[in-house]
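Incident log, structure service

09:12 report received: a user says their structure output differs between two submissions of the same chain.
09:20 pulled the input from the user's history:
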Amino acid sequence: MPQVQQYIDELRRRFGNVTVLHQTASETFLQVEHVVPERGYTEVLCVALGAKFPRAPPIVTYFDGRAISIASSDSSTDGGWDSSTSKLADAVGNAFANLADLWGSVAPPSMESLLAQLGLLSDSMLQDIVSNPNCLESYAYQLPFFKAIRDAGGQTIDEIERVANENLKLQPVLDQLRDEVEELQRSLEQNAQSVQKVLQSTPLLNSISSPENLAKTLAADVKALDAQGEEIARRLLQVDYATDRRRFDELLEEYRQKAKERHVMDLKRRAYCASLT
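09:34 re-ran on a clean worker, output below:
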């Protein structure tokens, strides 16, 4: 454990009040205090630096021996410690944050506060606490931090009830909005079905998805009318005017109508193509 003093100095620069509780050549045991301004109380943690530190992580505990995690909420390293990059002050800072999250608004008890409370008791009262579980339970019940826990629990219940009541007030509005959304969904589905029916009944709409496609469609229509006109002309030439004048006149009129239809379609095609340039 090389130059442990530099790590003690690092903690003092960050947290100020650092006490060396025990130190040997192979291990150092520290007590670190930290004021949490947003919570309004002071936290106390014990930090053990073993013989393999900093290759091995520090061990951070509460005064009752319970281990406190040194990993931050967004830590990507195993256990929150990387021997090559992690800093002791950051690890202890994470532990303080985790302890604050554990206790919330209630100030966690410390050994000093408990000793101060016990110091106010008489010897007979201390004996009763040690020997009588009921007396111990009664004494613990009136300790300040237990009272703070009960008060915080009551506040939490009140907050839950308040939120629940707010939710109940919002329920009618939520139901109305849900009905409106469902109605809009049904209307959207009906409109989509109507559009689909129109597309299915009008193939031209499916083919026209761009100006170029429309121009191609018009050109194809002109070509189709040309083919139809040629077919009528072929049948017309096969009729003998002298023997079947009526049939000849019918096909001739049909050819004229088809030619007129083709001419109109070609004019539309030319006009549309000209509009694109």
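09:41 both user submissions now match this output. Likely a transient worker issue. Closing.
09:42 reviewer note: The CA atoms of residues 219 and 269 lie 7 Å apart. The radius of gyration is 45 Å.
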